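Please check this chain.
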Amino acid sequence: NSLSSIMFTTVRSCQKVFQSIIMTNQTRFSTSAAGVLSSMKGKHFTSIDKLSNDELKGLLQLSHQFKETYSDKSKPNPKPLEGESLSMIFQKRSTRTRVSTETGMAMLGGHALFLGPSDIQLGVNESMRDTACVLSRFNSIILARVYAHADIIELAEYASVPIINALSDLHHPLQTLADLMALQQHFGMDLAGKTVAWVGDGNNVLHDLMLGSVKMGMNVHIATPA
């Protein structure tokens, strides 16, 4: 989806993205949003709480702009990630995450490389540290969908390029970005004072949804099994 694309661009080439969007779309970003997101270049995205409130709001603003820009087939789309590559570690399979990530990266002009359990020696002959170092030499960004959040932390510790958490047992930040974007599309950009009710398991999705909702000024009501 567009939100995965937003993360790639803001983590790697934010300023180039803003220049491309402004040139090809009538809608303009605020200077403050551009400044906030430019400061994220080179940083890891492991969970929602790693973002400031302004960074979260800026990412959501950029997400809406990307949706508008890349949905318009009447004019050429900007390619801010041309020449960049993304390695995707998938310990845990997902149809939507793989398809949306590869499609988004292609739309932005970059190349995505899928690395499933049978494709690399992760945890067998090569440690997470070795994998982080090797992939950093060949790729601009590393996205990882893993079981243990400790693996995300280890990747972030040893990688020399940005790490994006596509899912771990503790956090699912990209899902929260998508959920908040959907709420803004329904209720408007200002979600302050709204209430989110969660009924279900207390899991990784809930962890980031709680964090993200509070950062947006929302109330959170939770009902989970005892």
